[in-house]
Amino acid sequence: MSKQNKYIILFDGVCNLCNSSVNFLIKRDKYNKFLFASLQSDVAKELLLQLNDKNNCNILDSILLIKNNAIYSKSSAILHITTIMPFPYVLLSVFFIFPKFIRDFFYDFIAKNRYKWFGKKDSCMLPTKEHLDMFL
User: Fold this and answer.
1) What is the DSSP letter of 86?
2) CB 28 within 8 A of CB 85
3) What is residue 32's three-state secondary structure?
4) 35-46 average pLDDT score
5) Quick one: pLDDT band at residue 60, thresholds 50, 70, 90?
6) Residues 6+ away with beta carbon under 8 Å from 64
7) Predicted model pTM
């Protein structure tokens, strides 16, 4: 799969929950479908500007998925990620049946408390040598 055909996940690089989620995805991404960048990076800001998404350029409390030049955030990003994942994780996409405002209510509650519950790093996660090509 070429870099143009990959799905890009932008995440809060200092959030322990976010970093654990990225590590979870890396371990299960057998076909190397994902690329990652922290929301704090210049790469993320440049991507969002290229896609004319100035609204998300300074957001750090959401995960963003870039899929086919569309940007998904919050619960929609997570559920779109599950549609790309292998079985049994793809089954989680059933939560699309709930309206976005309900899904995002729970997402926002977790996002607001993520540092308190899971902690925060002093700096963004650095990929290991074997995963370096998965990061922008």
Assistant:
1) P
2) yes
3) coil
4) 87
5) low
6) 9, 10, 11, 39, 44, 48, 56, 71, 72, 73, 77
7) 0.84
Instruction: Take residue 87 and report the two structure tokens written for it.
Output: 């079985």
Cα separation of 41 and 117, whole Å?
Answer: 24
Q: Three-class SS of residue 127?
A: coil
The predicted-structure confidence for 17-36, as pLDDT tens digits, reads as follows 888 899 899 999 888 899 99
- What's at 103, amino acid-wise? R
Q: Amino acid identity of 85?
A: M
Q: Could you read off the pLDDT of 71-88 as tens digits, one per residue?
A: 899 999 999 999 999 999
- The SS3 call for residue 67 is strand
Cβ within 8 Å of residue 15, ≥6 positions away: 114, 115, 118, 120, 121
3-state secondary structure of 36: strand
Instruction: Count up the domains in the chain and report the number.
Output: 1
- Give the structural domain span for 34: 3-134
Q: Tell me whether strands 34-38 and 7-11 are parallel, antiparallel or unpaired.
A: parallel
